[in-house]
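Would you be willing to look carefully at the protein I have copied below?

:::
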Amino acid sequence: MRINKIFIASLLSGACFLASCDKEEEREIPEQMNMSTKAIVKVYNATLGSTRNNIFIDNVPITGTSGVYGYGAAFPNTVYGFAVEPGTRTVLIKDTAATTTQTPVTFTGTFEAGKVYTIFTYDTLNKAKAKMVETSIVVPADTSVRVRFAHFAHLHSGPTPNVDVFSKRRNMNIFSNVPFTGVTDYISYPQMIDTLFVMAAGTTTPILDTLVTFNPTQKRNYTLVFRGRYLVNNHATLSRTLSTLADY
């Protein structure tokens, strides 16, 4: 794991006045490049219909601006994450609007220094839940990439079926029988443009969704996230979607 390459840059500037009050001196805090003493976290929102969320760690707000983190988005919206002090921490993800019907998601997580984590929120507004998994970043020594798959497509009534992910270029399943809320381990994958299909486990039809532009950059790590309404593919904002999350 090359956690030292995952960092959060914080530039803070301040002004201090001399005793005479007639001279201002600016000071710049250097970037923090070594995050090996912290845990790194990214949050992906697959909660159907959510429009705004704020993230709190031990009641301290992480997201800052309210209303910028909605359905189908990751925070931070980069390949990097935010730093968390190691230890047992309380995580709270909620819509802070007074009129919201979204259920706050709260849980206690244990974070280890030098490790990377992804938190997925899922289900519906009044039943919002979360799952945290470790994100084992490894940079391939060759030109390949590493890919994992997360199944958070929601079925309104009854258990959500397991799914397979089929590669057209390789003519094979690259992930098989993945249950709802399942997040697979990473697999090595050639760096190439591929067409991927999500299907009900053990079948070849019907195709639930297609990701036709998976064109990974060599040596990177990715999560494929299957989200939306499992049985509806024509909803304006909540249709089944297979999206790519760049982990590193």
Confidence is low (pLDDT under 50) at residues 1-31. The first strand starts at residue 13 and ends at 17.
